[in-house]
């Protein structure tokens, strides 16, 4: 399983990459996509909305289940990745690359309180 060191992680299995321009990219981890199985649909209806840290910003539907997606940091959802909207299987194939889910404009403290390092996330999932 892959745990890129440059990303931060949540206990709910999302990852976040903070960008220099005050935005962030959010997706689900390799562990999460593996546990969910084949992803068939993403339901993100929060584009243009401000979402508090820890609140649900959408759902991911897999063959075996539907799971909520939680915002790892306070921000406004700027866009849903158009590639995963058309081809949700990209989340399975490339969760840290082409399979990112949303881009967010940070609206609150960009602090990393509660976010995990790759090492801490590995420990959380028993890797």
TrEMBL record:
PROSITE patterns assigned to the protein according to its UniProt record, in alphabetical order: BIOTINYL_LIPOYL (PS50968), LIPOYL (PS00189)
UniProt keyword Glycoprotein, yes or no: no
Sites bearing N6-lipoyllysine, chain numbering: 64
Superkingdom of the organism of origin: Bacteria
Alphabetical list of InterPro entries matching this protein: 2-oxoA_DH_lipoyl-BS, Biotin_lipoyl, GCV_H, GCV_H/Fam206, GCV_H_sub, Single_hybrid_motif
tRNA-binding among keywords: no
Keywords annotated in UniProt: Lipoyl
Cofactor comment: Binds 1 lipoyl cofactor covalently.
Cofactor: (R)-lipoate
Domain (Lipoyl-binding) ranges: 23-105
Function: The glycine cleavage system catalyzes the degradation of glycine. The H protein shuttles the methylamine group of glycine from the P protein to the T protein.
Subunit note: The glycine cleavage system is composed of four proteins: P, T, L and H.
PANTHER family registered for this protein in UniProt: GLYCINE CLEAVAGE SYSTEM H PROTEIN, GLYCINE CLEAVAGE SYSTEM H PROTEIN-RELATED
Family membership: Belongs to the GcvH family.
Name the record gives this protein: Glycine cleavage system H protein
